[in-house]
Amino acid sequence: MLNRRHLRVKVLEALYAYHLSADRDIPAFEKQLVKQVHKVYEIYLYLITLPLEIAAYATKDATERAGKYIPSAEDLNPNLRIASNLLIKLMDENPELKKAVKLYKISHHEDEETIRAIFKEFRASAEYEIYGKHEEHKFSVDKELVQFLFKKIVCKNPLLEQQLEEKNISWPVDREVVEGMVVKTLKTAELPAGIQLLELTSNWEEDEDYIRKLFRMTLQNEEEYQGYIAEKTQNWDVDRIALMDTILMKMAICELINFPSIPVKVSINEYIDISKEFSTPKSKIFINGILDKVLVDLKKNNKLVKTGRGLVE
């Protein structure tokens, strides 16, 4: 599931897109922000259901090969054990997964070329060949094969990579967390349910309110937050401060002032950490220095209202 760090990144992406856009429609960008968070979960569902499609394609492939003008012995005796894989069968029957697929309108109808490429590589693997020689199905063995399929074949397929980038412009950023969600779901699969889907977040109602508020209030109070930053960067050429750094600092100030239940250190450390990935090599030092100075002013002017023990220091 998505954590607060990933949600902060989603807000950062939305704010960055807003500042680069000629159309400054805050409600429209806020709506798109929520949509992009759900897009992460949509890709999770898309990937978790790929093994079902690959198993189904194995049967189709066998039929096509048997129908060749001069089929080989292998064509006439294909390894179809994957089609009766216990974990895949349980996933196919899982009501929770069916409901989620319907809700998010997950479809693989236009993906046959990608599924074919994945299956061909999968079929050629030693793991697939060895699996086909087992006489009886054992859940742990079937589960291990599905994990291999995802981690070693699906995650490394260039056609799928291209396809996911077309589906989601943020895929390079989302990839690690989405693949981690799928791996965890498969790893924790047990009888009799098979898999248990992860939630979008631990508390989506609360988290949705958080990202909407963080996005909206960062923009609504932008001039005020810019003032705090400007006071501490008087010796800097403002035009040379990276837009990403400015947005990160404004988000941090917004969170410090408007989210009383989030500890000060958590906010500052999170934004410094995010800057390591999304801004310049020197940004973390710059942002840390400016935020430390802004924090002193916020405390002095009683702008920092935190509720709960240990939330300020």
Overall description:
With 313 residues, the protein is an all-alpha fold. The chain is 69% helix and 0% strand. The protein has helices spanning 4-20, 26-48, 50-66, 73-76, 86-93, 95-103, 112-123, 126-132, 139-153, 158-167, 171-187, 204-220, 222-232, 243-258, 264-278, 283-300. Helix 12 (204-220) crosses helix 14 and helix 15 packs antiparallel against helix 16 (283-300). The longest helix has 23 residues, at 26-48. The protein is elongated and about 75 Å long. The protein starts with a helix and ends in a 13-residue tail after the last helix. The model has no long low-confidence stretch (mean pLDDT 90).
Secondary structure elements and their pairing?
Elements: H1 4-20, H2 26-48, H3 50-66, H4 73-76, H5 86-93, H6 95-103, H7 112-123, H8 126-132, H9 139-153, H10 158-167, H11 171-187, H12 204-220, H13 222-232, H14 243-258, H15 264-278, H16 283-300
Give the number of helices. 16
Largest sheet: none
Q: How far apart are the termini?
A: 29 Å
The share of residues in extended strands comes to under 5%
Uncertain spans: none
- Which shape, going by the Cα principal axes? elongated
In short:
The chain has 313 residues and is mostly helical.
